[in-house]
Amino acid sequence: MYEFTKKAIQWLGWIVLIASAIFAIWLFRDGTLSDFDRFKNWVIQYKILSPFIFILIQIIQVVFPIIPGGVTTIVGFAVFGFWPGLIYNSVGIIIGSIILFALVQKYGRRFILLFVKEETFRKYEAKLESPGYQYFFIFCMVSPVSPADLVVMVTSLTNMPIKKFSLIMLWTKPLSVIGYNLIWVLGGKWLLQIF
Fold first, then answer.
1. CA–CA separation, 95 vs 97, rounded Å?
2. pLDDT digit string (tens) for 5-34?
């Protein structure tokens, strides 16, 4: 049953990726993606529900890492603006990370291996033995380019209390989200200068 679940999640990941690509092509042909104002209006058409829908998407992409989180993070900033985008991104990612932490604490390594290759997991699990692991964990949570979801799952195998984990998330994740946004903004400007 476990192997079946693992395969099903892998297939689900591919299905979500293909469905996302088809949906993006459809939105582009429809003109929604080729016109940013139209795209923004399409996202915020649900008025007060839009932020909650976005936060829910962020939670889901953390707990079930089959949706590329970087895409949703940038969409949050582009559509809602800097401060609301920062808040909605951070809230979704923090809640998702806490849920992921709790799930791995309950179900252990078998849960991690549903989403991660065993050799990748072993590589990060080996870091748990290092005396400075907590600093490594904090660094990964601040860094906008680290495999944050994987590090959250591995950290769940330690004796770190969920309260301490949550406090670390509260101050590291907003920094990571800002860093990720800066990389895209500065990278975009650099690409525009080149081309």
1. 5
2. 878 777 877 787 787 778 767 777 777 666
Contact between 76 and 54 (Cβ < 8 Å): yes
Measured CA to CA, the distance from residue 69 to residue 188 in angstroms comes to: 18
> What is the count of structural domains for the chain?
1
Segment (H or E) for 45 = none
138-146: long-range pairs with CB below 8 Å, 24+:
138/168, 138/172, 141/168, 141/169, 141/172, 141/173, 141/176, 142/172, 142/175, 142/176, 142/179, 143/176, 143/179, 144/176, 144/177, 144/179, 144/180, 144/182, 144/183, 145/180, 145/183
C-alpha triplet 138, 58, 186: angle, nearest 5°: 70
In terms of residue numbers, what domain contains 158? 2-194
Quote the CA–CA distance of 139 and 148 in Å, as a whole number. Answer: 10
Query: What's the token pair of residue 79?
Result: 């559509």
How many other β-carbons are positioned within 10 Å of the β-carbon of residue 79?
A: 20
What pTM was computed for the model? 0.86
* Residue in the structure block whose two tokens are 């078998």: 110
The CA distance from 82 to 87, in Å, is 9
pLDDT tens-digit readout, 86-136: 999 999 999 999 999 999 999 999 999 998 999 999 999 999 988 899 999
DSSP 108: T
